[in-house]
Design brief:
Layout lengths: L1 H12 L11 E4 L18 H5 L8 E5 L3 E3 L14 E6 L6 E3 L5 E7 L4 E4 L2 E4 L7 E8 L4 E8 L2 E6 L10 E7 L7 E8 L2 E6 L1 E7 L9 E7 L2 E3 L6 E4 L1 E2 L2 E3 L2 E3 L21 E4 L5 E3 L2 E3 L8 E5 L7 E3 L2 E3 L4 E5 L19 E3 L2 E3 L20 E3 L15 E3 L2 E4 L8 E3 L4 E2 L4 E3 L2 E4 L7 E2 L4 E3 L2 E4 L97 E2 L6 E3 L9 E3 L5 E7 L7 E10 L6 E6 L6 E5 L5 E8 L7 E7 L7 E10 L21 E2 L6 E3 L9 E3 L5 E7 L7 E10 L6 E6 L6 E5 L5 E8 L7 E7 L6 E11 L1
Keywords: Hydrolase, Signal
Protein name: Carbohydrate binding domain-containing protein
InterPro entries: CenC_carb-bd (IPR003305), Galactose-bd-like_sf (IPR008979), Pectin_lyas_fold (IPR012334), Pectin_lyase_fold/virulence (IPR011050)
Length: 810
């Protein structure tokens, strides 16, 4: 009955001169010299003929490609379920243009009409001064539910609306519920595959006609696959919706305009990219929002007032002035009780935020008036008691802040300590900036996060945190020629410490930002990427709980045990002596360099366990680990000219009394194994181009070499050497390997790197035999050099270093 009444209402409100049989196709050619009857051979030549017709279910209105019609289009009639009325084009050439020529209102207007498909047109309504203007505006004041509005494959641009005015009536596509009694709502709204450019205020808005004007919820809204540039304020907004899906849209450079209508009318100059308010069960996924310049909010995304069960997943946000996500507290809007309800059930997962909080690198920029943060809270942490999630959930996101920025990771306009609590788990925070975090008065959960780079004073305590370089493929996107641009830059290498280092999250969505499965029972990665990094080894962390496809090495049997794991639940456990496991790799490329990494420890310190490779067409090579806590080994090997196989192993050497443990092994190919260090083994017999560190002088000596003839010998304390390596790639991930030992056991010698755009990183050894020190680091987005060093801090005897390598991971 409501559908019938709505259809009748639409027919009464639109001027009608003629009714036609269902299924008729009407043609419009605005370049025709004379107005015809609407057939293809005698087309209409003005929008007035379309506006003067009431169309029926199944009818089509086709505009000729390559032509321009001037005026505003307001066709009459409604379709029916399964038999829509459609607007499109015919002929070949550019999309037909409808140019409203600066008129106030919508270029295409539907009032109390339903079952319409509108596609394939170009809409313009430009003017020197703003007014209430829209591209497509569908309004419902029928007092009931209207169904199916689809707008697709349109080019809507230069809509001169009010940047600070109401949303739906200043939109590229506005779908509006007018304030009526009884309630008016929509069901089945689809806006897809459109291109919007320079639309003021917003590209797509599905809202009531004002704050406090809607008590019903529009259902089944889908906004997907749209591209938006230079929107005056926001990009996408849903208000009073249930079950909206906002998927696969790309929006950039929005938020530059805030011009409001005349005094006394709605005015809001704050804007964000994609957001919702007063809505339930909204899913926002696979979108990219970048370079939003609004100074008041300016974030890529926003969960505003009165929302229930909102999920943000798989989105890519970068260079947005206010940050990645705005989180609004409850507040009071006149006649809008929903605004006082805290948004609850918010889940933020598998998103990537890159250099948000600044417009650095964007063609346009704004000035912050309310500050910025990757996660930008306006007040305390909102959540409604009794909701399905006790606190907002932030997990498995990747947040990257470049050097030179001061963007906080957790920021609130209310101060550095705010009310409420949140859950923050499995997030990868790559922070080369100087920004900090807020604390909460409630009990927040922080676990299994990566905090790499700078470590500000309020960085959350996290007993299971990882602080090593995550080894992203191309963080910061500084190399535009790289295949790992966009969000793909935040996949990781096979040797990354984030792999299997997360904690299991229930109801985790099942997939990461790249389509990789996420187990409900096995430990995930930290960050938005849950793949293996291209690891050529199978069961690399022994997380199947079984040995296969590893095989027993000759000697005493090893086993996979649910103890002593580095990540996940399982590790390989050897016996005390002559015990280990092999894995045969096939399908390798001849004459190619590979990187083998793995983690090992021994039950009895000083005994050795080897991670190595053989049968690859070259000399067997390995690294011994002798520590009682997990240490990483790195082995480079190059296959022979005809070799396509290799055998990787973990092996507890003979003569021990305690077990050995291996976990998290990885093999990946390198496109180049060129060593960026000059005189890496000091085999020239001189220090150059190494330079003395400050303090006691070091020297090159013809003794204590690990290989060759020469090594670096430090003084007893405050002594070492440094080499500035230039020609590196900005935003590149590198592996530095150096070997060090101490003359006196227990004294420490460090192998490290600094001045690369990030925080100085080093590893220390205190053994009297050479131990490998592999250090992974990433150059800053504006840094192409690094200082690699050997340094002995204190003690009574010399230290020694030898055989440095600096390899780019690609």
């Amino acid at each position: 009955m409501l559908t019938l009444l709505a259809t009748l209402a639409g027919a009464l409100l639109v001027p009608a001169t003629a009714a036609h049989a269902a299924g008729t196709t009407y043609y419009v050619d605005c370049s025709a010299a004379a107005n015809g009857t609407g057939t293809q051979s005698s087309p209409w030549n003005a929008v007035g003929s379309v506006n003067g017709t009431t169309f029926a279910a199944g009818d089509s209105i086709l505009f000729k490609a390559g032509t321009t019609c001037t005026g505003q289009l307001s066709p009459g009639g409604s379709g029916a379920s399964g038999s829509n009325i459609s607007i499109g084009s015919y002929g070949s050439g550019a999309k037909p243009v409808i140019d409203a020529a600066g008129a106030t209102g919508a270029v295409v207007k539907l009032l109390n009409q339903q079952y319409w498909d509108i596609g394939g047109l170009e809409l313009i309504d430009n003017a020197s001064s703003p007014a209430y203007r829209s591209g497509v505006l569908a309004e419902n004041s029928s007092g009931g539910v209207l169904h199916h509005i689809r707008v697709h494959d349109m080019y809507i641009h230069n809509i001169a609306g009010y940047g600070g005015g109401w949303y739906s009536t200043n939109a590229g596509v506005g779908v509006q519920t007018d304030h009526t009694t009884p309630v008016s709502t929509w069901d089945d709204v689809v806006v897809e595959n459109n291109t919007f450019d320079h639309v003021d205020r917003i590209a797509v808005a599905v809202t009531p006609d004002g704050d406090g004007q809607g008590t019903g919820l529009t259902t089944n809204t889908v906004i997907r696959g749209n591209t938006m540039t230079y929107d005056g304020a926001d990009d996408i907004l849903v208000v009073k919706n249930d079950g909206a899906l906002i998927d696969g849209n790309k929006a950039g450079y929005g938020g530059a305009k805030s011009t409001c209508p005349p005094s006394g009318q709605y005015c809001n100059g704050a804007s964000a990219g994609i957001w919702m308010s007063g809505s339930s069960n909204t899913v926002v996924q696979n979108n990219e929002v970048y370079c939003h310049v609004n100074g008041a909010d300016g974030t890529g995304f926003d969960v505003d007032w009165g929302n229930h069960n909102t999920t943000f997943q798989y989105n890519y946000s970068h260079q947005n002035l206010g940050g990645f996500l705005l989180v609004m507290p409850p507040f009071t809007i006149a006649n809008e009780p929903t605004s006082t309800v805290p948004s609850d059930g918010t889940v933020v997962r598998y998103n990537i935020s890159e250099n948000d909080g600044s417009n650095s690198g964007c063609p346009t920029s704004g000035t912050q008036t309310h500050g910025a943060g990757v996660l930008h809270f306006v007040g305390g942490v909102p959540n409604q008691s009794g909701s399905s999630s006790a606190v907002p959930l932030f997990y498995n996101n990747t947040f990257s802040v470049r050097d030179g920025l001061s963007t906080p990771i957790l920021y609130s306009r209310a101060g550095t300590s705010i009310s409420g609590a949140l859950s923050f788990q499995n997030n990868a925070v790559f922070n080369y900036g100087s920004g900090n975090y807020f604390t909460t008065t409630g009990t927040s959960t922080y676990s299994n996060n990566l905090f790499y780079g700078n470590h500000p004073s309020r960085e959350p305590a996290d007993a299971a945190k990882v602080t090593a370089d995550p080894e992203f493929r191309n963080p910061g996107n500084t190399s535009t020629s790289s295949s790992y641009t966009g969000k793909n830059a935040y996949q990781v290498h096979a040797s990354s410490p984030v792999i299997r280092a997360g904690t299991v999250i229930s109801s985790n969505g099942g997939y990461d930002a790249f389509g990789n499965a996420v187990s409900a029972t096995a430990a995930p990665n930290i960050g938005a990427y849950n793949g293996t990094g291209g690891n050529l080894l199978s069961n690399a962390g022994f997380e199947t709980g079984a040995l296969s496809p590893w095989t027993q090495a000759s000697g005493n049997s090893s086993s996979v045990t649910a103890a002593n794991s580095r990540t996940g639940s399982y590790a390989l456990t050897t016996t005390a002596s002559s015990s280990g496991a092999n894995q045969a790799l096939t399908g390798l490329s001849p004459s190619t360099t590979y990187l083998l990494t793995g983690w090992a420890k021994v039950a009895t310190a000083g005994e050795t366990l080897a991670i190595g490779v053989k049968n690859f067409g070259g000399t067997e090579t390995y690294t011994n680990i002798a520590t009682a806590s997990y240490s990483q080994a790195a082995v480079l090997f190059t296959t022979g000219s005809s070799s396509t196989t290799a055998t990787v192993y973990c092996w507890k050497n003979a003569g021990g009394s305690g077990a050995g443990y291996c976990d998290d092994l990885a093999v990946e190919p390198l496109s180049s194994a060129a060593n960026a260090v000059t005189n890496p083994g000091y085999e020239t017999g001189a220090l150059t181009p190494w330079a003395q560190s400050t303090g006691t002088a070091s020297s090159v000596v013809a003794s204590n070499a690990r290989s060759g003839t020469y090594a670096l010998q430090t003084g007893v304390s405050a002594s070492g050497a440094i080499q500035t390596v230039s020609g590196l790639t900005a935003g590149g991930t590198y592996l530095l390997v150096g070997w060090a030992k101490a003359a006196t056991a227990g004294e420490e010698v460090a192998v490290g790197v600094k001045s690369f755009g990030g925080t100085e990183t080093y590893l220390r050894t205190s053994t009297t035999s050479y131990a490998q020190q592999p250090v992974f680091f990433t150059t800053g987005v504006s840094t192409t050099s690094a200082g690699v060093y050997c340094y002995k801090n204190s003690g009574s005897a010399a230290g020694y270093c030898d055989d440095y390598s600096l390899i780019k991971l690609s």
